[in-house]
Write a structure and sequence with these properties.
With 456 residues, the protein is mainly α. The chain contains 27 helices and no strands. It comes from Motiliproteus coralliicola. InterPro entries: Ankyrin_rpt, Ankyrin_rpt-contain_sf.
Length: 456
């Protein structure tokens, strides 16, 4: 197939694939791990597109690199003219992915097809920086990058050099020592106020590397620019681990310290945006208080309810987390859970069974009903809340009733019908003098619905 024809095929299928298929296999690592050229062509024939792009700019070629597709498949993709530097995104260039996931043969293959290894992403991270994320010992890539003039002392926007970035990678001891022996700059203190040891504490479970960087540090107990030190650094980015906590203990660190918001490492672990809570068991075996409150009155359970999956919430409750503890804004675990959608039905049922007050309000007047409507909870749960005696017409901190929330942002006309049948007052106005009927007319999800007439 000619280049122009194939690219036209890519473009056409890009328009068709999104609506026709729930998930594009080209945008998964799993597909590429054992994919042959014939497999790729078959998926193209089915209407899937190699040009479909995620919000941050990744396309099929990026996933082929992440999934470690065979060199034959990679060559075929490049021979077809598949672009490896898509427009948009945040500097998501395939050259960077090649450095992270590939070997020397792949690096040279990309160069054969015109790759520019002088690129960098939105953080100023170059291919030599992305090499620090590679899980294998790749001395050949280092030598090749040196041959083409790449600078291993070049810093990213945080002031971290490629050598300094190896501190994050627990499999990179040999690569670190290789570059160290070459005399490259480890860039001790970066723009976040972190040295090699502090960076390693955020993600590196290699005790040998932790020991090396600890000994290299001028002050291993100093805090970074955010006030994080020691155990707080182990949860500052994503998750902690048994290895890092045990290392800190062996050096005499106090694991009970808090940040400037009064949060322990357990609070911070629960507050990050990862759905899981890797390292939770390692913290709990060291006696962390599951009901400790921070300066705003938040327990780890309340913080976890913002981002964590239901299994994490269940684990905290199993450990004795108080199911009714409110923070300084009057938000209880039940109210927080009601915002998480119907995936949290089991958690909500457990909180109610444990004594959560369905008629309680937060400090600004928000009720379980307003929270439940905003969270898209099922009518069966709304009925349970109404039966508990909640004020149907209570306004929350946004001066908005449950009916108004359903009219403004809701997607289910039946929720509005339920609230009206339960006695919600449709004549109430918000601070802009708008009624629920006026809000519903601005809601695209309710366009053409007969429920709008019922709000008049």
């Amino acid at each position: 197939m000619k280049l122009g024809t194939l690219l036209s095929t890519f473009a056409v299928t890009a328009m068709l694939a999104t609506g026709a298929h729930a998930k594009n296999p080209f945008l998964t690592k799993k597909f590429w791990k054992e994919a042959t050229i014939e497999d790729v062509q078959a998926k193209l024939d089915e209407g899937y597109s190699l040009l479909e792009k995620q919000k941050i700019g990744r396309q099929g070629l990026h996933y082929a690199l992440r999934g470690k597709a065979s060199i034959e498949v990679m060559r075929w993709l490049l021979e077809q003219g598949l672009p490896y530097r898509p427009e948009g995104g945040k500097g998501v260039y395939a050259e960077l992915y090649a450095a992270r996931y590939g070997d020397l043969e792949l690096i040279k293959l990309f160069a054969e097809f015109g790759a520019d290894y002088q690129v960098s992403d939105y953080m100023g991270e170059t291919p030599q920086y992305w090499l620090s994320k590679n899980k294998k010992f790749r001395p050949g890539i280092v030598e090749y990058f040196e041959e083409i003039g790449l600078d291993f002392n070049e810093q990213n926007r945080l002031g971290i050099t490629p050598l300094g970035a190896f501190a994050y990678n627990k499999r990179a001891m040999k690569m670190f020592e290789l570059l160290e022996d070459k005399g490259y700059d480890p860039g001790y203190i970066d723009g976040e106020g972190r040295d090699l040891f502090m960076r390693a504490l955020t993600s590196n479970d290699n005790v040998e590397m932790l020991e090396k960087f600890y000994n290299m540090s001028e002050d291993p107990e100093v805090a970074d620019n955010y006030g994080y030190a020691g155990v707080l650094l182990t949860v500052a980015d994503e998750a902690t681990s048994e290895e890092r906590l045990a290392f800190l203990e062996s050096k005499g660190y106090d694991l009970t310290i808090t940040n400037d918001r009064g949060q322990t490492a357990l609070h911070m672990l629960m507050a990050n945006r990862e759905e899981e809570a890797e390292g939770y068991d390692a913290l709990m075996k060291r006696g962390f208080d599951v009901n400790a409150v921070d300066n705003a009155g938040n327990t780890p359970l309340l913080l976890a309810l913002s981002f964590k999956e239901p299994a994490v919430i269940e684990t905290l409750l199993d450990a004795g987390a108080k199911p009714t503890a409110a923070n300084d804004k009057g938000v209880t675990p039940l109210l927080a859970a009601l915002l998480r959608g119907d995936d949290f039905t089991a958690v909500i049922d457990r909180l109610i069974a444990a004594g959560a007050d369905l008629s309680a309000k937060d400090a600004k007047g928000g009720t379980a009903l307003t929270y439940a409507v905003k969270g898209g909870q099922p009518i069966e749960l709304l009925q349970k809340i109404v039966d508990a005696g909640v004020d149907l017409n209570a306004k929350d901190g946004e001066e908005t009733t449950a009916l108004m929330h359903a009219a403004l942002l809701g997607k289910k006309p039946e929720v509005i019908e339920f609230l009206l049948a339960a006695g919600a007052d449709k004549s109430i106005k918000d601070v802009f003098d708008d009624t629920a009927a006026q809000m519903a007319m601005d809601n695209a999800a309710l366009k053409g619905s007969q429920v709008i007439a019922k709000l008049q």
